[in-house]
């Protein structure tokens, strides 16, 4: 059967229209963006849920928050492609990116990218009042828990000891979880312990109220400044007066709880996520939804960044005037 030129032209128009339609349908295909958070009892999980609900813009952009084992698990899942993003302590992200610290000998995860710094996780150096520890230097010869093996806190504690010129052999080191350390201190078996996390934390609150009194030892001065200069993921921080019973304001260091993603996630998707995170709608949800939500501020979105910023997020931060260039 022969076709006239006009009929052929009609078919051609139909095909090109179908191709265009396919293209636009593909352009509108929903982007699914999973967030690895933490355990359901922690802070990452509820904050992740709040952000996912506020930023989702179906059908184009769908965010879901998933419970996980926290920073290290999230970094590994992003590397394997099992997650598009996740929450991580800034130090853990830095070690993964550089193949150091907890990731020593495991290779570098050079595809990790920062989407936003969220809120500070303060380094608490908790001391029994009776131990009379006023500075990190006073830890020499004392019974000190540095947190359990494999924890980010243990690596941070070692950095802090070294910053004040103290070797691990100079202290009677123990390796307990914060809750166990608090119990041991209450029983008189421990002089000090390290804890990294948002304040107030229940184990320290209870200890301050029932355990004969505590001090939070300051991490400040030239030693702290030198540590911050060497490790970009540390930021200056202050635990406000009255956070713990009978403890005044304390200057310390913090690592950011950060939202990280992969260089493999398209720029356009990350741009929309960053834009959604700092929208008025998300601001209202964070302020109303969780105590830590109020601390998630656009002004500190890039504080303590130890890994490169994702180009999609970078575009947003430049438009928002937070980045030059």
Describe this entry's structure for a reader:
InterPro entries: TAT_signal (IPR006311), TRAP_TAXI (IPR011852). Keywords: Signal. It comes from Microvirga flocculans. Pfam families: NMT1_3. This is Immunogenic protein. Helix 2 runs antiparallel to helix 10 (280-289) and helix 6 packs parallel to helix 7 (202-210). With 325 residues, the chain is of the alpha/beta class. The chain has 2 domains: 30-119 and 256-319, 3-Layer(aba) Sandwich (D-Maltodextrin-Binding Protein, domain 2), CATH 3.40.190; 122-255, Periplasmic binding protein-like II (D-Maltodextrin-Binding Protein, domain 2). The relative contact order is 0.16. The protein is 38% helix and 21% strand. The protein starts with a helix and ends in a 6-residue tail after the last helix. The protein is built from 11 helices and 10 strands. Strands 1, 2, 3, 4, 5, 6, 7, 8, 9 and 10 form a 10-stranded mixed β-sheet that branches.
Compact summary:
Keywords: Signal. It comes from Microvirga flocculans. With 325 residues, this protein is α/β, with parallel strands linked by helices.
- List SSEs in N-to-C order: HEHEHEHEEHEHEHEHEEHHH
Mean pLDDT: 90
Q: What is the percent of helical residues?
A: 25-40%
Tally of DSSP β-strands: 10
| Percent strand | 15-25%
Largest sheet: 10 strands, mixed
Treating each run of at least 4 consecutive H or I residues as one helix, how many helices?
11
Rg over CA atoms, rounded to whole Å, is: 24 Å
Number of domain units: 2
What is the CATH class name of the largest domain? Alpha Beta
Which stretches of 5+ consecutive residues score pLDDT under 50?
A: 8-27
State the fourth-level CATH superfamily of the largest domain.
Periplasmic binding protein-like II
SS content category:
alpha/beta
Quote the distance from N terminus to C terminus: 63 Å
The name of the CATH topology of the largest domain is D-Maltodextrin-Binding Protein, domain 2
Shape: globular
Please state the second-level CATH architecture of the largest domain.
3-Layer(aba) Sandwich
């Amino acid at each position: 059967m022969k076709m006239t030129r006009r009929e052929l032209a009609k078919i051609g128009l139909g095909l090109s229209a179908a191709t265009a339609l396919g293209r636009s349908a593909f352009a509108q295909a929903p982007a699914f963006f999973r967030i690895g958070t933490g355990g359901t009892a922690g802070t990452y999980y509820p904050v992740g849920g709040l952000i996912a609900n506020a930023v989702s813009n179906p059908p184009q952009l769908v965010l879901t928050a998933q419970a996980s084992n926290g920073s290290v698990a999230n970094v590994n899942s992003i590397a394997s492609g099992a997650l598009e993003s996740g929450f991580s302590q800034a130090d853990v992200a830095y070690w993964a990116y550089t193949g150091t610290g907890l990731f020593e000998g495991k290779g570098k995860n050079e595809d990790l990218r920062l989407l936003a710094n969220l809120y500070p996780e303060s380094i608490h150096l908790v001391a029994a009042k009776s131990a009379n520890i006023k500075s990190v230097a006073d830890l020499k010869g004392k019974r000190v828990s540095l947190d359990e093996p494999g924890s980010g806190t243990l690596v941070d504690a070692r950095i802090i000891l070294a910053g004040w010129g103290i070797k691990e052999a100079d202290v009677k080191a123990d390796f307990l979880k914060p809750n166990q350390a608090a119990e041991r201190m209450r029983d008189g078996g421990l002089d000090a312990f390290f804890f990294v996390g948002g304040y107030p934390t229940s184990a320290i609150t209870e200890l301050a109220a029932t355990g004969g009194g505590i001090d939070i030892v300051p991490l400040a001065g030239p030693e702290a400044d030198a540590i911050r200069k060497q490790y970009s993921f540390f930021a200056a921080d202050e635990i406000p007066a009255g956070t713990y019973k009978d403890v005044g304001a304390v200057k310390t260091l913090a690592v950011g709880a950060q939202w990280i993603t992969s260089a493999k996630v398209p720029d356009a998707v990350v741009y929309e996520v960053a834009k959604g995170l700092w929208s008025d709608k998300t601001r209202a949800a964070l302020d109303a939804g969780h105590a830590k939500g109020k601390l998630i501020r656009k002004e500190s979105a890039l504080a303590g960044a130890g890994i490169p910023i994702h180009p999609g997020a970078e575009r947003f931060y430049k438009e928002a005037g937070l980045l030059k260039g």
